[in-house]
Amino acid sequence: MKYQARITLDIIFKYIFKITGLLVLAALGGILAILVYNSILFFLDVKPLDFITGLEWNPTGKTPQYGMLPLILSTTLVTFGAMIIAIPLGIGTAAFIAEYASPKLKTFLKPAIEMLAAIPSVVIGFLGIVLVGPGIADLANLPNGLNALNGAILLAVMALPTIITVAEDAIHAVPKTYKEASYGVGATKWQTLCRVIIPAAAPGIIAAIMLGVGRAIGETMTVLMATGNASLLPEGMFDSVKTMTATIAIEMGEVPYKTTHYFSLYAIATVLFFMTLVANLVGEFFINRFRKYHAA
């Protein structure tokens, strides 16, 4: 009887886990369906090419303009700037924690870094307004510091905990035999880290980077508060920008229901969805390539 009860319990939990997995897929499919449906209603009024390549976003003007190229470039610029800062800092910190930090220091650093992820984005944005922005304005002799660089710095801070935690786990998971073999042929600790451990942990490190990219692309409140929200083509990191997430957050609360402007925000969300999807697919491609390389 006990054996039969265990088998029955296993079958029940098997179907519970299967149902939960299917529910996640159904939720994702439902979100995508809503985005695509409302985007199609928008594209009945505005040509998709004009929407993607248009140079002006002014949906409330006398002649409404629905060009989201400035929003795409602004989002890309801020995310790229954040990753330039976060990737070397994140991987370097992860390598230090995994290979160089003493046990006492490690027990302090890991919880401290994880606590950084718990800071609300509105608090990070507030610090960008009162601390980082004025500092940038003073250093670059600008009237204010609400620009792409400010947003990139803040997004880098927000992406660091994810990158560090996942990358450190990947580095820590490298078999000790790899290190012992490297030391056995006379390599130093630094050479072992750079030429053996990090390449071996590359799939996990790339996954950490892609999670950081997703965190930066999807952030709303911080960039809304810290980047100036100017829907113009950015020419550099010191220009005020308006990201796609900030545009949706600012305009969705006041836009008339079921108007072209309303549907345009769903179209922006759809573009954002596919940008994130492409970033994840690119990351998955390189992860699989590294796995095949290590398996060969």
TrEMBL record:
Keyword Isomerase: no
Assigned keywords, A-Z: Cell membrane, Membrane, Phosphate transport, Transmembrane, Transmembrane helix, Transport
Domain ABC transmembrane type-1: 72-283
Full protein name: Phosphate transport system permease protein
Family membership noted in the UniProt record: Belongs to the binding-protein-dependent transport system permease family. CysTW subfamily.
Protein's cellular compartments: Cell membrane
Designated gene of the protein: pstC
Superkingdom of origin: Bacteria
Keyword NADP in annotation: no
